[in-house]
Amino acid sequence: MPEHDRAIAELQRRVRDLEDRLALMQILATYGPAVDSGSADPTARLWTDDGVYDTYPAVLHGHAAIADMVTGELHQRLIHAGAAHLQGLPHLEVDGDRAVATTYSQLVLRDEATGSFRIWRTGANRWEFVRTAHGWRVTHRVNRQLDGGAEARDLFGAAVGERPGGVLPPPQGQVPDRPDRDAARPGEG
Fold first, then answer.
1. Taking the model in full, what pTM does it have?
2. Which of 141, 174, 167 is nearest to 46 (CA)?
3. Main-chain dihedrals φ then ψ at residue 97, nearest 5 degrees
4. What is the per-residue burial (b if ≥16 Cβ within 10 Å, else e) of 71-84?
């Protein structure tokens, strides 16, 4: 292959990689406004039809369950009192038609008594994606609270190559359940 053709092929590869990363960041940036506006269908459409959102102890399977979380009593109470679901900048790994983003998340709530805001939850998140005919979609999200336990550290460690499983383990990779965890705040993150 002539040098000119190699250069063009390399530029095409790099542009596609940048476009993929931008599309993945757009999904992450869409999650907060979607859930904080109570937009159940746009939130659910971020996932594949059989996508999973594992936010211990709740594990939501499919669009209907994810939409139900957004329209549920707890979530509606939070957003009507003032809530912001924030995602940190992601650590992204893209491998063909699969990708993984590892992020921090925070749920910030308004304190009605003082009119100020406070951080209610801070978590480690692993978002697994697949490229579909409709663009990138979430196949699996794991959210674990930064409560001093190993689960959140393991999610971060996998992102930087320090934990088993590596960055792109088989699809639907999971962090083991910890039955001893505090389940006082399920299903939000």
1. 0.85
2. 141
3. -100, 15
4. eeeebeebbeeebb
CA-CA distance, 20 to 131, in Å (whole number)?
A: 9
Angle at 18 between CA 36 and CA 173, to 5 degrees: 60
**Please, are residues 136 and 130 in contact by the beta-carbon 8 Å criterion?**
yes
For residue 9, what are the contacts with CB-CB under 8 A and spacing of at least 6? 1
Give just the sign of the alpha carbon dihedral 131, 155, 92, 34.
positive
What is the pLDDT confidence band of residue 185, given thresholds at 50, 70 and 90?
very low
In angstroms, the CA 172 to CA 146 distance is 21
146 has pLDDT over 50 = yes
